[in-house]
C-alpha cells in the first residue's frame, strides 16, 4: 500500500462537528500522482516510488527531465518526489496514487516549506524578551544583549541564537488527523494547520 501523496495547500476553513464545535481544517488538493519511476531493492538497494505532481507543458521542463518522464508515458510534471516503502508491487509504472489511500480519522504527517519571513531580530526569531526599558537605555530595547565569551575561547560559540533569516525551511507537522476524504475532487481535509503558504507543495504521509 502506498503511504504518501503529493498535494497543494488550498487554504484553511472550518467544519462544524455534530456537537456544534468548530474544527479548524486545512484543505489540500492531493494527487492524482502517477508513478514515474520504481526503485527496486535488487537494482537500487532500496524500494521506493517516485511520484509526479502538477502536470505542465513539455516546454516547461528540460530535455533530461522529458527523457526521464517519457518512460512512464503519463505526461510532464513540475514536481517529482520519492517515497520509500516496502511493498511496491501494487503500484507499477504509470499507475495513479490517489487520496483513496487515506481514510477519515487516520493520522498523518505533512511536510512542506514554511513561509519565509526574511531577516528578523532575536525577539521575533527566538522570542527574546529584549533589554530593559528603564532610564539610561537608548535604542537597545530589541537587541540581543551580550553575545561574547571570556578570554578563552574568545569567540562566539557556533549555534548562538542571533538575528538572521527566518522561515523558508522544510517543516514536518506530525500526528494530524484526516477529517474528510473526497476522491471525486482529489481533496483531503486535515484538522489543524500545515506548513507553508497557499498553493505551497505538500507531502502527506501515513504515520508508521
Overview in brief:
The chain has 208 residues and is mainly beta.
Q: Superfamily at the CATH H level of the largest domain?
A: Translation factors
How does the major sheet shape up? Answer: 6 strands, antiparallel, barrel
N- and C-termini, Cα separation: 12 Å
Would you tell me which CATH topology of the largest domain applies? Elongation Factor Tu (Ef-tu), domain 3
Going by helix content, strand content and strand pairing, the class is: mainly beta
Low-confidence stretches: none
> What's the overall geometry?
extended
* Portion in strands: 35-45%
List the helices and strands and how they pair.
Layout (H helix, E strand, L loop, with lengths): L3 E13 L5 E9 L2 E7 L1 H4 L3 E9 L6 H7 L6 E9 L11 E2 L9 E7 L4 E3 L1 H5 L37 E3 L3 E13 L4 E5 L9 E6 L2
Antiparallel strand pairs: 1-2, 1-12, 2-11, 3-4, 3-6, 4-5, 7-10, 7-12, 8-9, 10-11
Question: Keyphrases for this structure?
Answer:
mainly beta; 208 residues; Elongation Factor Tu (Ef-tu), domain 3; 2 domains
Mind explaining what this structure looks like?
The chain is mainly beta. It folds into 2 domains: 4-117 and 172-206, Translation factors (Elongation Factor Tu (Ef-tu), domain 3); 118-144 and 161-166, no CATH class. The protein is built from 3 helices and 12 strands; from the N terminus they run E-E-E-H-E-H-E-E-E-E-H-E-E-E-E. It has helices at residues 41-44, 63-69, 122-126; strands at 4-16, 22-30, 33-39, 48-56, 76-84, 96-97, 107-113, 118-120, 164-166, 170-182, 187-191, 201-206. The protein has a 6-stranded antiparallel beta barrel. A hairpin with a 4-residue loop joins strand 10 (170-182) and strand 11 (187-191). The longest helix is centred in the first third of the chain and has 7 residues, at 63-69. It is extended. 18% of the residues are buried. The model has no long low-confidence stretch (mean pLDDT 92).
Amino acid at each position: 500500500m502506498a503511504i504518501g501523496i503529493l498535494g497543494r495547500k488550498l487554504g484553511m476553513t472550518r467544519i462544524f462537528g455534530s456537537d456544534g464545535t468548530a474544527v479548524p481544517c486545512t484543505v489540500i488538493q492531493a494527487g492524482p500522482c502517477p508513478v514515474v519511476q520504481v526503485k527496486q531493492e535488487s537494482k537500487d538497494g532500496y524500494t521506493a516510488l517516485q511520484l509526479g505532481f502538477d502536470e505542465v507543458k513539455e516546454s516547461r521542463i528540460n530535455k533530461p527531465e522529458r527523457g526521464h518522464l517519457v518512460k512512464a508515458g503519463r505526461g510532464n510534471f513540475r514536481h517529482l518526489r520519492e517515497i520509500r516503502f516496502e511493498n511496491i508491487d501494487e503500484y507499477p509504472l504509470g499507475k495513479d496514487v490517489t487520496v483513496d489511500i487515506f481514510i477519515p480519522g487516520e493520522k498523518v504527517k505533512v511536510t512542506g516549506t514554511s513561509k519565509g519571513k526574511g531577516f528578523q531580530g532575536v525577539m521575533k526569531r527566538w522570542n527574546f524578551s529584549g533589554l530593559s526599558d528603564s532610564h539610561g537605555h537608548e535604542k537597545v530595547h530589541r537587541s540581543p544583549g551580550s553575545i561574547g565569551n571570556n578570554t578563552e575561547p574568545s569567540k562566539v560559540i557556533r549555534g548562538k541564537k542571533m538575528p538572521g533569516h527566518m522561515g523558508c525551511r522544510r517543516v514536518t507537522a506530525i500526528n494530524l488527523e484526516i477529517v474528510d476524504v473526497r476522491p471525486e475532487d482529489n481533496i483531503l481535509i486535515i484538522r489543524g494547520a500545515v506548513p507553508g503558504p497557499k498553493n505551497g507543495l505538500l507531502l502527506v504521509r501515513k504515520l508508521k
